[in-house]
UniProtKB/TrEMBL annotation:
<keyword id="KW-0369">Histidine metabolism</keyword>
<comment type="similarity">
    <text>Belongs to the PAL/histidase family.</text>
</comment>
<dbReference type="InterPro" id="IPR005921">
    <property type="entry name" value="HutH"/>
</dbReference>
<feature type="cross-link" description="5-imidazolinone (Ala-Gly)">
    <location>
        <begin position="142"/>
        <end position="144"/>
    </location>
</feature>
<dbReference type="GO" id="GO:0005737">
    <property type="term" value="C:cytoplasm"/>
</dbReference>
<keyword id="KW-0963">Cytoplasm</keyword>
<dbReference type="GO" id="GO:0019557">
    <property type="term" value="P:L-histidine catabolic process to glutamate and formate"/>
</dbReference>
<feature type="modified residue" description="2,3-didehydroalanine (Ser)">
    <location>
        <position position="143"/>
    </location>
</feature>
<dbReference type="GO" id="GO:0004397">
    <property type="term" value="F:histidine ammonia-lyase activity"/>
</dbReference>
<dbReference type="InterPro" id="IPR024083">
    <property type="entry name" value="Fumarase/histidase_N"/>
</dbReference>
<dbReference type="Pfam" id="PF00221">
    <property type="entry name" value="Lyase_aromatic"/>
</dbReference>
<dbReference type="InterPro" id="IPR008948">
    <property type="entry name" value="L-Aspartase-like"/>
</dbReference>
<comment type="pathway">
    <text>Amino-acid degradation; L-histidine degradation into L-glutamate; N-formimidoyl-L-glutamate from L-histidine: step 1/3.</text>
</comment>
<keyword id="KW-0456">Lyase</keyword>
<protein>
    <recommendedName>
        <fullName>Histidine ammonia-lyase</fullName>
        <ecNumber>4.3.1.3</ecNumber>
    </recommendedName>
</protein>
<dbReference type="InterPro" id="IPR001106">
    <property type="entry name" value="Aromatic_Lyase"/>
</dbReference>
<dbReference type="InterPro" id="IPR022313">
    <property type="entry name" value="Phe/His_NH3-lyase_AS"/>
</dbReference>
Amino acid sequence: MTIYLDGHHLTFKQIKKVLDYEEEIEIHKEAWKRIETSRQTIEKLIQEDLVVYGVTTGFGKLSDVIIPQNQVEQLQMNLIRSHAVGVGKPLSERIVRAMILLRVNALAKGYSGICKETLQLLVDCLNAGIHPVVPSQGSLGASGDLAPLAHLALVLMGEGEAMVKGERLTGLDALERKGLNPIRLKAKEGLALINGTQAMTAVGVVTYLDASDLANWAEQFASLTFEALNGVIDAFDDQIHQVRAYPEQIEVAQNMRGYLEGSQLTTHQGDLRVQDAYSLRCIPQVHGAIRQVLNYVKEKLEIEMNSATDNPLIFSDHGEVISGGNFHGQPIAFAMDFLKIALAELANIAERRIERLVNPQLSGLPPFLSVNPGLESGFMIMQYVAAALVSENKTLAHPASVDSIPSSANQEDHVSMGMTAARHAYQVLKNSRRVVAIEAICAAQALEFREIEKCSPHSKSLYRQIRKWVPPLTGDRVLANDVERLTAWLKKANKENSKV
């Protein structure tokens, strides 16, 4: 089913369909009218020989340089080539798909002056599975994500490189492989393609989608740990959470009660102990706070992915072209820094539960969940790996948005570093997913020493799913494979079962 974009109503559910199920997109007919009107405004301004930033002038500090009419197209081609200076590992194809989708949606708003042919080619590239090779580093997150988006735009010109069905091709070969022709950019078009926040927002969207799924899995695996450690269920009593009144905390407590319903392994206060350690007792408070952050991030991303973020903007109703600063990524930079803090905390508390599972002084279970302690080390080093990942997250969680380095001869004297914040959030997500997978593996093994039949129905089902990918530990083996298999399953299960 085709998704029609109008620049105003793109949803996470639609994004997921495009990213994970290769749903095709088209521009809504009403949006085409605005796009064509916007382009007509640009053409009129050129004919009148007016001074318009980025159309008849240079860029950044060079905005005082006037460009003759016969060179305005060359200016746009030069812009793309000169700004394609990204470095580092390329962004994933999933993120690049999100970049194209978000850029198309922004251009569909009709404030950018793009030509119909150029925008249609961008749509065709996404539908045909042409994914430009976009280096991940080099954006300051103000004046837009210039370097990453320039690499994306290169392919429209038949330059740069693109991935097509796993094969790395030149931009021209990629277009020809799919029966498409490159375009020559006209006035304003280069700027319309690269002046925006679609790289950081794309990374943010992909990170948010996976983080939201990971939060759901983390709660479920925490319930396994809770049973394996005979947790005190009273801590999830609804009365406790109602009197604090955070909706997310109340929701997590309700989820935990549902996951644990029917369990014969949980206890009540006073049975074995009066209360549990914080990593068990405070699951609703901590995981609930993480959900609060996810809700904040979702709200900011939903605004950004339906916004016009380039410069200058064309207001055709008044025949005006106005320079501003919508390309500044500060809202997304803050959101990504907040997200990586929350994801780091998701891993922090999971690692503390892992420690409780493998530490015999805390668990009452065999040391390191080994069937032959001493001769075998069991899951001793699983906790080490979780601790290493958690420690790395703490470094990555340092806010990128508090930094700013002036650029363009101090014309662009304050930048957001939003792309850096987004990239770090994505890495924290990957680290945290592995920590959560390690907790799942350890919790499943701990339940081997309990009576599985005494688990709640939900836990039995979850245990069986884990066992499809990770067998019980009957003797020391290479556990790296187990962690990677379960991590890969979590990513696959996210795609199939995501709640948006």
